[in-house]
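We both want to read discrete structure tokens more fluently, so let's practise on a single case. Once you have written the record down, we can walk along the chain together.
***
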Amino acid sequence: MNRFTLSRGFTIVELMITLAIAAILLAVAVPSFTGFVQKCAVSQKTLQVHNALELARGLALSQRQVWTECTVDASNSCVSSAGLRLLVFRDDNDNNDF
């Protein structure tokens, strides 16, 4: 028997070609994946805002009171931009403060 017919494994050329193909596929896939992740994040935030609006609407209808939604900063005061989280609260005196 020939000594090459019994050998099992990959040559260095085969491994290099496989790595080159994997690198090309990865280079093509990464930009698409980051776009997908960004779209998922926007979709999740949109769903959170929608759910907060539905909660405020449902509470206002069931309790016949004014409920307000706003984004709050670290000091828990309503801000128009760069808020950390979304808050739904009953606004008895209509001053957007809870």
